[in-house]
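Hey, can you fold this one?
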Amino acid sequence: MMDWNDLQYVLALKEGGTMKQAAILLRTDPTTVSRHIKRIATHFETDLFKMQKGGKWVLTTQGEELTTLAKNFKKGLDQFHLGEGGSTECETIVITSLEFLLTHYLSPKIESGMNCFPDTKLSLVAADRRLSLAYGEADIALRFGRPTEGHLITSKIADISFDLVQLRGTKPKEWIGLQEDLDWTPDMRRGVGHFGKPPILRVSSYAAAREAAIATGHATVGPSVIMREGGQLETMPDTSPVHREVWSVIHETRRLSQRLAAVRTWIKNAVLEMQLQQHNMA
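Sure. Predicted structure:
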């Protein structure tokens, strides 16, 4: 009996070109990929791939036909999962992250994002808690640090810099930080390390920290892109930025979605373009 789950191995080998790359896409091993490819080839009694020099696998004519069927089948499953019932209406891709990443990096480039793949709409959802990718609360998440939990496909987007800053011309003795549940973050630890004590004031966002620092004359720490706005704040002398990795994350069941791949590529390019603009303005 045909196992439709084998089709994902065909699609992955086409995309990856080698058993090793296909295994990486599917978070498995080359032996497993090879076994499934052989099983589906046996079922249809035809060769789906031919190996070229260098170990690269290319589709045969029959393999191309099956791949087209597999893509259509997967698209139908995705639409059924989303309750679309085969509808050709636009699909909305929900991107979740901290508010400042959405506001300062993605929103300025949103027009190109909405044109990155046909029939695609974007929804940017700022959330402090992690929305579930498995249960469809979001399609793509942007997270600091590489996630280690299972069933996720991750891709590094960029390094974001965080500065310890002060009001220009001042020498603050106190600093402003975020809430206590974020004391573990590298930027909060930098503040404690520099001042040798917890913040005198805690706020709920980096934007609020910036405004409070300007109003009180206390120092604060936060993303360079926020702290540099307006020019009132400057990096504290004898301090260096803290860099935190940003990763895009999707659930493994969406690994072969061309729509999500296009949106993730847009996200990465948008962040890098904004970083370049910020660097040129610094």
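DSSP finds ten helices and eleven strands in the chain. Let me know if you want another pass with a different chain boundary.
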